[in-house]
Amino acid sequence: MPKLTDTQLIVLSKAAARSDGVAAMPTGMNKAAASRVGASLVARKLMREIRSKANLPVWHENEGRSTSLIITRAGRNAIAIEDEEESVEPRDDGTRGGTGLTMADAVAAPRPGSKQALLIELMSSKKGATLERLVEATGWLPHTTRASLTSLRKRGFAIERSREEGESSIYRIVSGKA
Fold it and tell me: Which of the following CATH numbers is that of domain 103-173: 1.10.10.10, 3.30.70.1130, 3.40.190.10, 2.60.40.10?
């Protein structure tokens, strides 16, 4: 699926945050821009149009008929939000429903299939990975890759950097989490 724009992500995430899943037009957005954003989300089946009710935010009006946008399951998946059917509430044992991860692990672990998950996979091997290998794998610039390593450290990953005389630095995750 093609990447979503910042505006599309904002609209989807705000809709997902609402209990009814209805999108509200971002403040400062004009009607023409909102119409284009809404049409693109509907065309991608990330949102669907419904007839507005009295208490729902109106996305647009057409021939005197108010229309609202509601997020679909595909829209929730696009921004990695689980449906309400899947429990994400903490259990008594401190894990999230069905995942086997503790709440702290779920917050710290990057989304599967993401570039940060790829970095973790590459650095988890015994050999580790050089900065050049990480840059090649992600397609990022070196400074972006180093910033991502810093972000992983802040999330609690123990990343070790070693360097032998005349060779590139090798990055490894020593124990999964610090």
Answer: 1.10.10.10
Residue type, 112: P
Spell out, as residue ranges, where the chain has pLDDT lower than 70.
1-2, 81-108, 175-178
Predicted pLDDT of residue 89? 43
pLDDT at 60: 82
In this prediction the pTM is: 0.45
The pair of three-digit structure tokens given for residue 127, joined into one six-digit string: 């050999």
- Which CATH code of 1.10.1040.10, 1.10.10.10, 2.40.50.180, 3.30.450.20 fits the domain covering 6-78? 1.10.10.10
